[in-house]
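Quick one: structure tokens for this chain, please?
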Amino acid sequence: MALFDLPLDELRGYRSASTEPEDFDAFWAKTLQETRQHDLAARFEPFATPLKTVDTYDVTFAGFGGHPVKGWLTVPAGADAPLPTVVEYIGYGGGRGLAHTHLLWASAGFAHFVMDTRGQASAWGGGETPDPVGSAPSFPGFMTRGVEDPETYYYRRLFTDAVRAVEAARSHPLVDAARTAALGGSQGGGITIAVGGLVPDLAAIAPDVPFLCDFPRATVLTDRAPYREIGNYLKTHRGRTDQVLRTLSYFDGVHFAARGRAPALFSAALEDQTCPPSTVFAAYNAWAHEEKKIEVYDFNDHEGGGPYQQAAQLHWLPAHV
């Protein structure tokens, strides 16, 4: 696929037309307040693997509504003092997977907390966290589950889980709360941006080719899933466009980015039809913290930089956590 979005010089100045709800902050403050009425109840159970270089813990904590959410905590073997920490969120359809697949950050000397994704984890990776909350009829996938109202939208639950994941990670004695960063790719990148806007004291964030940004543009620019799920829903439910876009505005990475208070390392791929580069730049350009950087991969689709972006993160993060 050749370049299909704005040229790079225009991307660097692009601003989203997404309208921020007047009660955006009140909505999220209420959501988190209600969730924090439930005990975090974070449990870290040692998990035996044949690996010799890391120690692994099977994690359970209370997410949105007090619902149990799973995760993995992986640390360098024998660690006995608080470590800089990476909290990672997973891409669309995936879950926390198997314990032995999370080695990169512990190998670099970090504690690594991976959050499972409620109700997903059946397209790849695997996971163990159900989503016990139902919704009205929705197109197959997750983008339209409960999209009739912000209160019922799926990503309200998932973003809240993600904030609680930071709190759970910070509750472990091997995690240095002051040196905690968030990262993830695609959906995980979109979640990272949301967490960066909702958790005021993160040390850094690193969203890679992030999803869930600039919904008004994304939903009409690409016909590739998952954004296309929204178009397919509206194709059937005629006349609901304004209602759906209003709901999505509470979950748009652009508005979370405007509240970002940590240094940030983004990435975008100029041939990415899944998360078009203009939607990524919309969040990057809105990111409020003055220290920010974006890696651009000229001829890549949604795979983005892959291991090259991991290398960039490995060099960038130690200076911030």
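The radius of gyration is 18 Å.
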